[in-house]
Amino acid sequence: MSLARLMLILPLLLCLILFATGVPRMAGWVADSGTLLVVVLGAGGALLLVLAQVFNQGRIGHMALLVLASFALQHYGLPAPGVAYSGPAYWLLFWLALLLPLNIVLIRWLPEYRPWSVGALSWPVLLLVQLVLVWAVPRSPLFVDAYSWVQSWQLQAGGGGLPLPAWMSATLAAGILLTRLPRQPDTVLAMLGVLLLQALAFYFAASAGAPLLAALLSLLLLLVALLIHNHQLAFVDELTGIPGRRALLNDLRHRHGRYTLVMADIDHFKSFNDTHGHDVGDDVLRLVASQLRLVGGGGKAFRYGGEEFTLVFGSDDLKEVTAEVDRLRESIAVYPLVVRNKAGRPADNRSGKQQRGRQPKDKVLHVTMSFGVALRQPGEESEMLMKRADKALYKAKQNGRNRVERAR
């Protein structure tokens, strides 16, 4: 499980636990500070919308808007806790519980825009249309037939529970969100968390403060997702999935005492791009990163830039670190990189049978790396340490490449 995924799953579970433990206490909190909590919710939602605009996170902004709209409709459109739902109130709760999960799925698959850009306005307009229809239908002659259908899904006794169509909508939405989860699932997992919290809010709609608590926790979860996403953008290399140069500099800034730094460079990387294309060059970078990620001895891998990588070890045992680096060098050198023959692939099974045995085989390439190892001296700045490691790397290349050299 990736760190980004774990960083969001834990807050998601925490929010669900807080909701379960907080609902019984919300009646007292609402009685004492209900207005203040609503103000906090509105301010938090506005702040999240601004941050989403600044950081180009349209989905986060749309989700915040959906949470605020859902709470406002529940807060001002539903009766006080303990009052049975009927007529327009039941109609509103039914369609809220049915449509909200479907809107979350729609936000998930819409293109990423800034929340208030022209391209992003399609969803708020659609949301407004839904609100107008939900408000207008009970006031039209069609209300009698439509309400009869809604009434057939009457809530359980006492107003608790969700109608079957709402259960089906929430289940379908959760399944769609989890299907083909992206490599960086921060926003999608936050959407799933909001879906679960809002479903619980509808289920406990008769409990005082349940919609307010669900809305507050939903905005908190969306804020966490926004922070995680921007942390990934700032500190994780998108191509290789390992920490990037900014993360390296931040790591070195907080290291003190003696440690070992290794500069590494892919041998003849330009020839891979020139001969096989940039796609193969990207595959080479991913392959190297996947092997460097397995570094032992307490080491940590970073992509410094281009075809250069950096390893940082907390150990000052130069002999032990050099042995681990040499093991990595050898594992990379023997690892086969298969270059698929895409141009010669048959269009269908029949063509494949005719061409079988006559197509050129896929190429198998091998990548090598050179390494320069430097042990930090007392009081030495990280910039000077990196220069010494870089000189050792240059020496490794001069001495034939695919080797490890120590700095003086």
Automatic annotation (TrEMBL):
Which InterPro entries would you find in this protein's record? Diguanylate_Cyclase, GGDEF_dom, Nucleotide_cyclase, Rev_trsase/Diguanyl_cyclase
Q: Which PROSITE patterns match?
A: GGDEF (PS50887)
Highest taxon listed in the record's lineage: Bacteria
Annotated stretches, region: Disordered: 343-362
Listed under catalytic activity are: 2 GTP = 3',3'-c-di-GMP + 2 diphosphate
Enzyme Commission code:
2.7.7.65
Domain GGDEF positions: 257-408
SUPFAM superfamilies, alphabetically? Nucleotide cyclase (SSF55073)
Question: A GO BP term, please?
Answer: negative regulation of bacterial-type flagellum-dependent cell motility
Q: What class of enzyme is it?
A: transferase
The record's annotation in NCBIfam families points to: GGDEF (TIGR00254)
Q: What is this protein called?
A: diguanylate cyclase
